[in-house]
Amino acid sequence: MGLGEFLFLLTGLKWTVALSAIGFVCGAIGGLAIALMRTSGMRPLERLAAGYIALFQGTPLLMQLFVVYYGLALVGLRLSAWVAVSIGFTLHASAYLGEIWRGSIEAVPRGQSEAASALNLKYVSRMKDVVLPQAIRISLPATIGFLVQLIKGTSLASIVGFTELARAGNIVSNQIFQPLLVFGIVGILYFLMCWPLSLYGSHLERRFAVASR
Amino acid sequence: MKRTDPQKVGCRGNAMNYALDFTPVLDGLPDLLAGCLGTLLLALGGMAIAIVIGIGGVVLRDSRHKAIRWTVRGFVELIRNTPFLVQIYFIYFALPLAGLRLDPTPTAILALGINGGAYAIEIIRGGVQSISRGQVEAGLALGLHKGLVFRLIVLKPALRAVFPSLTSQFILLTLTTSVASAISAYELTSVAQRIESESFRSFEVFGVITLLYLGLSWLMMTFFSTISTRYFSYPVK
Q1: How far is CA A185 from CA A179, A189, B72, B91, in A?
Q2: How far A40 CA lies from chain B's nearest CA (Å)?
Q3: How high is the ipTM of this complex?
Q4: Which chain A residue has the Cα nearest residue B78?
Q5: Can you spell out the DSSP letters for A152-190?
Q6: Could you tell me the residue range of the domain that residue B86 belongs to?
Q7: Could you tell me if residue B233 is inside a domain?
Q8: Can you give the CATH number for the domain in which B71 is found?
Q9: Predicted confidence (pLDDT) per residue in B82-97, tens digit
C-alpha cells in the first residue's frame, strides 16, 4: 500500500470524525430534549419520549439510516448523502443519549429537586442549576461509552454510500487486492480513536465508584 | 413481479408526487419471513458462541500465565474498540487464508460470536467479581471440587447478577446481524436489499423491515425474560 492510498484512508478518517462529532453534538441537544420530556411528569410527553427511545433502541442503526435516507427523499427534500446521514445519526444518538440521561436525572436524589422547589426555584433553574450538573457527572461514563459506540456506528454510513473510513478502506482494498492489510489498518485507525475514550470512560467509572463508596 | 403504476395508486399529495406502493413488499413477504428466520439463526448462533467465549474468557482471564491473561485483555479491548463492519470484513477475508472456506452465513455467525464474546467476557467478569471470596472458600470447605464450586457458586449467581446487561447486549447483537448483509449472509436485510433493488420501492421496503426488526427484538426480549424467570429467579432451584 502506497502513500497515496494511506492518505485516501486519512481523508476517510476525517469524514468519520466529522460525522461522529455532528452526530454527537446534535444528538446531545436532541437527547437532552428527550431526557427532559421523559422525566417531565407529563404523561403524553413521557409516553412520546419512551416510544421514540423504544423505536430507536429496538431497530438496527443500518435500517434507521436507510429509512431516513429514503424517507427524506420521499417528502421531497433533495439532500446530499452527507446531510441525510447526519440527520440519521442525530436521531439515533438522541434516543440513546436521551435514555442514558433519563437514568442519570432519575439517579439524582429526589431531595435535591424538592429542596430546590422549596427554595422557590422554577423548573428551568431547578434543572439547569441543581439537577443537571449532578446528572451530567453521573452520566459521564455511560455517555463516553455511547460516544465510542457512535464512532464505530458511523462505519455503517459506508453501506448507504457515504465515503468515510470504512468505505475508503473498501475502495482501497478493491484497488490493491490486499483486504487483510487494508482492513487491518482501518481497524487500527478506529482503535486509535476509540481506545483512549474507552480508557477515559472506565477511569471515570472507577473514580466515581470509589467516591460513592 | 406485479408492478403497479405509481400514478394510479394511493393518494398523491401536491407537494410530493410519489405514491406509496406496498405491493412489492407484500409479494416478497414469504421471502422476508424466511429472512427473519435467517436473522434469528444468526443471532442465536452468535449468542451461543458468545456465551462460550464469555465464560471461557472469564476463566482464562484469571489464568496463572501472564501471556494468557494479556491475550484475553487485548482481545476484549481490540474487539470493543473497532466497528463490527471492519471485523466482519477482516474475518471474511482472513478465514480463507487460514485454510477455512466457509459460506458467508457461517462466517457471519462466527464474527457475531467473536464480537459478542468480547462484550460477554467484560459483562460476566463484572458478575464474577461481585461474588465474595468467602463463598468460594465455604464451597471448598464443604468438600466440593473446583469445577463444581465454579459452576454452582461462582458462575450461576454471577450470571444472575449480570443477566439484565447480558440481555441488552444480546438484543444489540440481534440488531447488529443486519450488518452481516455487507458480506451477503442470508438474513433479513440482504433479503430486503434484493427486493429493493428489484422494485426500487426503497422507503416501503426498509420501513416494513424496520417494523419486522422491532418485532424480532421484542421476541428476543420475551425469550430472555422467560429464561430469566425460569432459571434465575429466587428461590434458587
Answers
A1: 10, 6, 21, 14
A2: 26
A3: 0.91
A4: A191
A5: HHGGGHHHHT--SHHHHHHHHHHHHS-HHHHHHHHHHHH
A6: 27-227
A7: no
A8: 1.10.3720.10
A9: 999 999 999 999 998 8
Domains of chain A, earliest start first: 14-161 (1.10.3720.10)
Whether the CB of A107 is below 8 Å from some CB of chain B: the reply is: no
Question: Are the beta carbons of A66 and B78 separated by less than 8 Å?
Answer: no
In whole angstroms, give the CA distance from residue A61 to residue A52.
14
Of A63, A183, A190, the CB nearest to B206: A63
Angle in degrees, CA A28, A29, A30, rounded to 5: 90
CB B85 to CB A158 under 8 A? yes
B94 inside 8 A of chain A by CB = yes
Cα Rg, chain B, nearest whole Å: 23
Query: pTM value?
Result: 0.89
Name the residue facing A180 among B97, B175, B210 (closest C-beta): B97
Residue B15: inside a domain = no
For A121-138, write each residue's pLDDT tens digit.
999 999 999 999 999 999
